[in-house]
Input
Amino acid sequence: MTGRPKQVILAAHFPGVNNHTVWSDPQAGSQIEFASFEHLARTAEAGKFDFFFLAEGLRLREQRGQIHDLDVVGRPNTMTILAALAGVTTHLGLAGTIQATYNEPYEVARQFATLDHLSAGRAAWNVVTSPDAFTGENFRRGGYLDREHRYQRAAEFVQAARELWDSWPADAIAADQARGVFVREAPPGAFAHHGAHFGIAGHFTVPRSPQGHPVIIQAGDSDGGREFAAASADAIFTRHSTFDAGREFYADVKSRLARYGRAPDELKVLPGASFVLGDTEDDARERAHHIRRQQVSPQTAILLLEQVWNTDLSGYDAEGPLPETDPEPDAPSIIQGRARQHADSLETARKWRAIAEEKKLSIRELIIEVTGRQSFIGTPAGLAAQINQFVQQDACDGFILVPHLVPAGLDEFVAKVVPLLQERGVLRTEYRTGTLRERLGLRPPRPAAAWAAAAQAAGSGAPGPGLGATAVSA
Amino acid sequence: MPEAGELHLAAALDGAGWHPAAWREPGARPADLFTAGYWADLAAEAERGLLDFITIEDALGLQAASRYGGPDDRTDQVRGRLDAVLIAAQVATRTSRIGLVPTATTTHTEPFHVSTAIATLDYVSSGRAGWRAQVSGRPGEAAHFGRREFPELSPGRLGDPAGLADPVVAEHVAGLFGEAADAVEVVRRLWDSWADDAVIRDVATGRFIDRDRLHYIDFEGRWFSVRGPSITPRPPQGQPVVAALAHGPLPYRFAAAAADVVFVTPRDAGEAGTITGQVREAERDAGRAGPPLLVVADLVVFLDRDAGAAAGRRDRLDDLDGARYAPDAAVFTGTPDQLAELLLDGRDAGLDGYRLRPAVLPHDLEQITRGLVPALQERSAFRRGYPDRTLRERLGLPRPANRYPSPVA
Output
């Protein structure tokens, strides 16, 4: 340990396709024009953030069998927008969410290696998997994955991608005009991967990229997700948790690393977090409530209630009381295109009724009360203190901040909170040269074969990659 | 809109240039081929020359000395490349006028991903996106995906280098183009799956979109089915420009059914007339509606102020490579003025324009932008500015109405 305090990792999440993103505000801009993405990325870079983060969804959400129309709908292609952002930023990391289910390792490896070249070492891949046949209707492969195999396929997908990234030695290109040698050995990029999910072989087309391997992020809090992160990822994107729950999660995830021969600092824990700033605590609370009302329109309140009741409640008045009927957990799910968030709907309904009766809340007031409250509400000084406390006391290594407005949702944070974090010496005041991997304090990438060996050594209980995979170096 | 008599002019960018030894020329930048700066500089040069668009080559397998072969042991040629769509997206932020037409395959890449990628390129570039739809027939590329086995495109007899007369190969190739036609159809339907005015942001009813203005595309074909709608709103051009390179009747039919622009490879002006006739026939066979295909000829160019220098350069590069360069398109060596005259002959034979393949980058691109373009302008055969905002407008293609009906507002 040096005398330098633990540094706060900060990422900027482009506001997503959900009711957290407020489109009805007069300040809300386009969700699709490039200028919106550029604004948020430039703001994050001005705030010396570590990276920009983009989520992905490959089928429009539906409820009651119709396309969901109350939230923001529509988004760009992840890789294309990140490549464009590489052209308007210099230091900011560029993290994209890409499905392991509806893509192939050869193409994904190629796209991230390309992004890493074009951005001079700033690419990161948030690996997600979906077993969702609904989304699969947009793709050749369909949605055949059962839940049990999703992390196995994802782990093997990442392993195969790593083998592809390792297929060109770092010094493969000589480009020696005098001697007439472009590549030192030909053909370059040989690989062969034969596993349970992928049987591929041939030659990779992209020379080794500046980071070697882009930074790998894994999103998901489940036991399988945590183990996958410990076995395969450089960072884990978790749902927001409280300070205490965060410390517990942090300790749990970090404790899983040794099994794979990894040190605790080789996996960064990054919760998603929303925030509201005010001049005073009261001002911040008032703004937070106003934003919550924007996020939960009367129509959205009914829709969110339906997700628990799992039945059509369109006849109810959002400003009136809760339905007297019980949820229908056994009926076919009325929502498609996103995970169901309420495991035990009867129990949730019982709790919600109790809260509504006690506080005399309408449907809309209840939904505002019980769903998606902002993570941090306070003054700039208060936010800086809380963020720093989470990081210094090992509730996390930093945050992926999720603004509620496009494109200016991060402006105030960067203007008011970032300087306070910098004063505390926990956030850089200038970027140094180097790759995203270096900036995050991660080590040079382990070779694919070492990842596979570690997973194998960890035993069959792990959702290990490997599975007979072999890397062939040219 | 183009004026009568004006040619469309594009530059085809690939690695260090189209000659396999191009990277060895003085002025070449072989160590920069995988950097953003290299591509941004080339695009900026093309834009300085007011070119209609650039294309960016791509493939899901390594380059090889033989057009149909797999990876070989040549260490003296450029190997490796970046994803063309992503290069184009970054170049879009460094340019403001020039059209950007990357290559993406119809064979392995999901049509859904191609559709959102090109739509996003259209947003990033404010209406300058195109897509060169390419089939990937090589068995080595199929093995990178591990889902299908393709037959070898065996070196056949003279005049049939891919062995197309072999019935197995013929069926394979016909399948590739059938699948390609389906892929383009899916991509185009997805582009139209949002009405232009689908986003309504109606606070009174709490609705961000009018879902009646979004459409399932419900495509079902032999190779795949896609439900839709797209996750990406309709792009600025409505339908970005689709281009295809075609060397014969089968790909002419594919282009006639699916594309806006066809790149063809005539040996001379006489053959240009013949091929243009075949393309028009393919359009009739395909029952093409809407504007006719723009017929654009590919031509590899070695350009110098002195015609002998250009020919000498070609000879020198051929010697370095150890073989006479014999690409699929015609090769021109000479001065920009001589080339201007040749291009006008092609125009008079019915061509709408040319896609020039610089033999050496950046040298031959600079000869195009600084020598050929002024020569064509003097002959009133090329624009003197960029009056049009979108690539479609520049090509004289109207912004198409949406194929899906929307409720009247």
Notes: The longest helix of chain B spans residues 167-191. The radius of gyration of chain B is 21 Å. Chain B has a mean pLDDT of 95. Residues 242 and 259 of chain B are 5 Å apart (CA to CA).
